[in-house]
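Supplementary Methods S3. Complex input for the guanosine-5'-diphosphate-bound model.
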Amino acid sequence: EGEKEGEIDYVFKVVVVGDSAVGKTQLLGRFTKDEFFLDSKSTIGVEFQTRTLSLHRKRVKAQIWDTAGQERYRAVTSAYYRGALGAMVVYDITRRRTFENVARWVEELRAHADGSTVVALIGNKADMPAGRREVAADEAARFAEEQGLFFSEASALSGDNVDRAFLTLLEEIFAVVS
Ligand code: GDP
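Predicted complex, serialized as structure tokens:
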């Protein structure tokens, strides 16, 4: 886009965490490129992707970090969390186990990230047929409320709610830092 660094007012680092294969990479790709990649692991090795947007007349560069598969080996390091102003904890609504592990990811975030990090809980794959659902939206919403997290279901495949979820998080970060 030919963005000059000088035109950027804020850089917001956002980390995406959650179990393997919940759709973290796809959500990030959807938000930064408006694409769903059929070859899901095409971004492996890339640490982050960015999207620059305007919020309240300021230019904000959202720098969204992907674990690039490290979560498989529980090797997400403190460097990954360092300086994160926001975080998305993602689970797959069709795999209950990934929701049960959310508490562990939230703990890990609280241990490594700053106390003021804004956290959103995302139930991904909302496009899947109702019969495949293993986590009710109500239950996740209740858990999110108890933990003080924003909550939304989304689909990286259809794009539903993806922008809205990221933008809500970025707005909230903006409110914290500005
Ligand atoms: P990650 O390991 O959490 O980064 O997960 P990926 O982004 O690699 O996605 C894991 C698998 O889930 C891939 O096969 C994706 O195509 C699929 N997937 C990701 N998001 C969605 C979604 O919103 N809906 C559906 N139906 N499949 C998805």
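Residues 78 and 112 are 6 Å apart (CA to CA). The helical segments are 24-33, 78-81, 96-100, 102-112, 137-147, 162-177.
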